[in-house]
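Lecture notes, continued. The same structure-token format from the folding unit now serves as the input rather than the output. Read the line below as a description of shape only.
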């Protein structure tokens, strides 16, 4: 049996954590054995990964003290019995490099899930680590990128091209699918009635560009007040003073529902009629793929591989173009009362079903050992 130890910066809510969880969940347990090291705590996904029967080690590195000697020694001891060290997120990449290449001479895989390297959209410390990692990348056995745009941008700053592959995110089609009972139940609970409903899923972050989204909704409101906008994700709630101020600025209080973190995203997607992603930067969006799997027509910005994901099953606008975004929303708001995007689900099923994606990872595990 081949043994893979995954090292990740943290196990909070995020796309990398979600994909790691799905990869382990759908991995062939008769051929591959997995464990996970979190540089921080168990976050949201630690318990979920534990529930799969997979051991999670938390190093609880304290950012304020910056002491990593003991965590490095502990991680080295854990990783000794594994064939491959697989890292997720930039801080874990450099940490895993020290473990795999300096201390243990193990095979190393970096998994990169980020595409926007613009200095205005990233912390200076993050970009410094990215530049350092670009020099180290030549000694990494394999670097997987979850989008073509991520690959292009990292090659552009010096990452090695010889050991690079693109493996997109995968989606659980049995979990993400349209359900009429969920739709009726959620719409009754949220008092949506027959009003057309737009939804977006993601955390409060500059990369998500909710400023443009609210400007677009303001344009929509000038044409019709008969719509609702559901916003789901970390800090998309009424405790977020900046978000609430934007809602009040554009007089959208009666149109927007802030739900914050929610544990049943498929039901919310079933209740909605339109999905919108307003991001300035994405690599390969989990949220877009999940919305398509639930048969929602999607409006996305042309960032990362979002255009490639939706192809001709949705609408693509330029990042920051709130006028075009509003026009796209109005087009779908004026469509039939229950327009479901069957073509979108079929595209996800054909290209991005999770078992197929997990098998691609496993093929590379085999080739490295």
């Amino acid at each position: 049996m081949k043994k893979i130890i995954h090292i990740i910066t943290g196990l909070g809510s995020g796309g990398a954590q979600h994909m790691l969880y799905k990869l382990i969940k759908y991995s062939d347990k008769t051929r591959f054995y997995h464990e996970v090291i979190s540089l921080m705590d168990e976050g949201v996904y630690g318990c979920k990964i534990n529930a799969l029967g997979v051991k999670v080690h938390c190093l609880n590195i304290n950012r304020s003290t910056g002491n990593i000697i003991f965590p490095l020694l502990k991680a080295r001891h854990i990783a000794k019995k594994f064939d491959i060290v697989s890292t997720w997120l930039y801080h874990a990449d450099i940490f895993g490099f020290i473990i795999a290449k300096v201390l243990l001479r193990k095979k190393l895989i970096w998994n990169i899930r980020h595409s926007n390297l613009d200095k205005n959209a990233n912390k200076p410390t993050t970009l410094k680590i990215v530049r350092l990692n670009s020099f180290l990348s030549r000694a990494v056995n394999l670097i997987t990128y979850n989008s073509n745009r991520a690959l292009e941008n990292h090659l552009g700053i010096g990452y090695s091209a010889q050991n690079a592959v693109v493996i997109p995110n995968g989606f659980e089609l049995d979990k993400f699918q349209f359900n009429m009972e969920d739709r009726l139940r959620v719409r009754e609970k949220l008092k949506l009635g027959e009003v057309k409903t737009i939804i977006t899923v993601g955390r409060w972050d500059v990369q998500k560009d909710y400023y443009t989204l609210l400007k677009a909704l303001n344009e929509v409101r000038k044409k019709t007040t008969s719509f609702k906008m559901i916003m789901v994700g970390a800090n998309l709630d009424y405790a977020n003073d900046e978000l609430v101020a934007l809602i009040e600025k554009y007089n959208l209080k009666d149109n927007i529902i802030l739900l914050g973190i929610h544990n049943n995203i498929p039901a919310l997607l079933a209740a909605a009629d339109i999905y919108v992603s307003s991001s300035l930067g994405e690599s390969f969006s989990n949220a877009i793929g999940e919305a398509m799997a639930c048969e929602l027509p999607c409006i996305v910005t042309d960032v990362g591989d979002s255009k490639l994901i939706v192809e001709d099953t949705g609408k693509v606008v330029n990042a920051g173009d709130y006028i075009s975004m509003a026009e796209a929303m109005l087009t779908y708001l004026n469509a039939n009362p229950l327009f479901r995007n069957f073509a979108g689900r079929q595209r996800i099923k054909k290209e991005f079903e999770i078992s197929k994606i997990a098998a691609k990872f496993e093929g590379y595990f085999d080739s490295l050992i």
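Point for the exam: The mean pLDDT is 95.
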